[in-house]
Amino acid sequence: MLLKNISYYHTGGTAEKIYAPADIVELSGEIKTIHENQVPYFVLGAGSNSLVMDDHWPGAVLLCSNLNSLEVKKDIVTVEAGVENTPFSKVCLNHELQGASWMNYLPGQIGSTVRMNARCYNGEISQIVDSVSTVSKTGEIKSYKGSDVFHGYKDTLFMENGDFVAEVTFKLSKGNPEVIQHHMEFCRKDRESKHQFMYPSCGCVFKNDYEVGIPSGMLLEDAGVRQLSNEKVEISPYHANFVFNKGAAAHEILCVSLDMRDLVYEKFGVWLEFEMELLGVIPESLKARVCESKIPNHNQKELAPLKRKFQG
Ligand SMILES: Cc1cc2nc3c(=O)[nH]c(=O)nc-3n(C[C@H](O)[C@H](O)[C@H](O)COP(=O)(O)OP(=O)(O)OC[C@H]3O[C@@H](n4cnc5c(N)ncnc54)[C@H](O)[C@@H]3O)c2cc1C
């Protein structure tokens, strides 16, 4: 199976072994086997925050697609990792539960949405998670309270310890279905008006740097990254932090992304951190650039007018 056929960004080559566990016990057994045999592996959700690399992956890939159960009991909703954000949000609406309306049309699955503490439209997944069941890198089934796993902006315990998020229990509250639906529609329309779904992408390639106080998209735009677009890789005309795949291989998208990071550093002295996750084998020729880290050297003269523009 070519991973490009299942990943949201439409990139990715073959893999030595693919697992698609049906429940947490099966998942635990598979991760134990992987661990005992010292096989390298990565987890793939919908792939909407990831760039899956082109070369054959000499290890295992764990898919979440068969972990798709969902159960509602009053205001408690228990969901397996592979359930997508949009249907989850719709189930909550059907049960008149508020707290998940912002997840309507947020691409991706619950497992990785929790893993990276995704956020948008004044919502953040940390606000509604009650508990999480995971499988550790050695195959042990574990349970966490929601309050123990979130570390702030796009930062969680699971990004550190590499646990597989298998099941999440949400605590929601009763709400007015008209208000919930109105907000869901607002989220959908706003994304569509920004042409986010025009071509495959991974959402924002770079995180925001809150110390700089200017969204990365503005820095990228002002640094002139659109000049880097080509026939197959296009920086969105609507949002300079979105990189569209118009038939490119992963390494071509990665090259453009690395050039974008350099342009921002040259103009502003800001070293952007990737939000996009790189999964698989990074080409030897790009490894050094991927791992590069430059010391911030903020050019206040260039940043000041942009900050004024952002603050209105
Ligand atoms: C058009 C568009 C708009 C977007 N807008 C936003 C936005 O507004 N806000 C925002 O926060 N994000 C946004 N994103 C990014 C994306 O929607 C989220 O990051 C989403 O949570 C990713 O889910 P996924 O299943 O596709 O993750 P994947 O890309 O499959 O995985 C992301 C990472 O999580 C790991 N992973 C996957 N599943 C699991 C699991 N079950 N347990 C442990 N690790 C796992 C993967 O190995 C990888 O490292 C956007 C993306 C797109 C394409």
Approximate shape: globular
Count of discrete alpha- or pi-helical segments spanning 4 or more residues = 9
Secondary-structure element string: EHEEEEEHEHEEEEHEEHHEEHEHH
Distance N to C terminus: 50 Å
Describe the structure.
This protein is an alpha+beta fold and 312 residues long. It is 31% helix and 21% strand. It has helices at 24-36, 85-94, 110-115, 157-161, 177-193, 216-222, 250-268, 284-291, 300-311, and strands at 15-19, 41-44, 50-52, 57-63, 70-73, 76-80, 97-98, 119-120, 123-124, 129-135, 141-145, 164-171, 173-174, 233-235, 243-245, 277-279. A hairpin with a 2-residue loop joins strand 8 (119-120) and strand 9. The mean pLDDT is 97. The structure holds flavin-adenine dinucleotide (FAD).
Topology readout:
Elements: E1 15-19, H1 24-36, E2 41-44, E3 50-52, E4 57-63, E5 70-73, E6 76-80, H2 85-94, E7 97-98, H3 110-115, E8 119-120, E9 123-124, E10 129-135, E11 141-145, H4 157-161, E12 164-171, E13 173-174, H5 177-193, H6 216-222, E14 233-235, E15 243-245, H7 250-268, E16 277-279, H8 284-291, H9 300-311
Parallel strand pairs: 1-4, 2-4, 3-16
Antiparallel strand pairs: 5-6, 6-12, 7-13, 8-9, 10-11, 10-12, 14-15
Task: Summarize this structure as a short list of keywords or feature phrases.
single chain; alpha+beta; Uridine Diphospho-n-acetylenolpyruvylglucosamine Reductase, domain 2; Uridine Diphospho-n-acetylenolpyruvylglucosamine Reductase, domain 3; Uridine Diphospho-n-acetylenolpyruvylglucosamine Reductase, domain 1; 3 domains; 3-stranded parallel sheet; globular; binds flavin-adenine dinucleotide
